[in-house]
TrEMBL record:
The species this protein was found in: Athelia psychrophila
UniProt superkingdom: Eukaryota
Record-linked InterPro entries: DUF6533
Transmembrane portions of the chain: 51-77, 89-110, 122-145, 165-186, 218-240
Keywords carried by this UniProt record: Membrane, Transmembrane, Transmembrane helix
DUF6533 domain sequence ranges: 24-68
Residues in coiled coil: none
Protein name: DUF6533 domain-containing protein
Any Pfam family: DUF6533
Amino acid sequence: MLPWASPLEIYDNPERQEIPVSNYVAVSALTAVTWDWVLSVEEECRIVRRCGLSIPVVVYYLARISAMVLCVLSVAIHSILPESDSCRAIISTMTAMSIVAAATKSFLFLRRVRAVYAKSIHVTLCFFVGWLAVVGTRAAIPFATSRLEPTEQCHRSGLPSWAPASLWVNLAYDTAVFVAISARLASYATYPQKHRIMSFIWGEGLPRTMRSFLRHGLLFYFSTVGLSLLATIVSSLPLSPTSKDIFWPSVLTTEIIMVCKLFRVSVPGTVKTTETEMAVLYTNITPSCNTVIELQT
């Protein structure tokens, strides 16, 4: 229960009844992103020592920080009663962090696609347009703030009817990345053409490193697509602003956790290789640090 609201106040305002549920979701998201970051500190230190503060590493940490700040503010706005002047500042910061999180997550995916397709100009251009669509639709959503009576709780309002389009665009981009990478890797499989679907799904017939690369992408997609689809559908329903936004911290948090994991395992030294494997597809991070996909010779 909210510390400043009586049971009668919550019961009398249906939208206020949704805030405790939204707070529980936000606390869960904050716990998940904090716990994952704590467990990843050792790997991240190795990456920084090897790669330095290159652009991909900086983007990686921007993704981490934006997700953390977003979760903290999501909890704070439901757990405390902000002053009148700070209400809009909090909502503005949350909106900015969601844009940064979407931009950094999509950028790391863009790098991953470029690595698989050996920096193909056409593929890069295609997915760069997708990246612009993800960031643009998220940044274009206007917002306003209001307070719920009688306790003056701050919350976001004024979302346009087309706001769920940003979630659909994000889901479409993630799906396109997953299909493009899986199809490209499956094309290197030694399986007969009629069994190529097994290579697409499970990586059968692929060298060990490529199979690991594909399966990590599979893990990301299917661990996030269900939650993303749920959040997208809920945001499209004729519900209150609080209900429409109830799942989006969890969606962003899950995506950031998984895409950061994909980034870490793609840095050399994380995945062991054999002498019969060589790097034929790569994306430069710095002269001393490359993200590699390895094929068996």
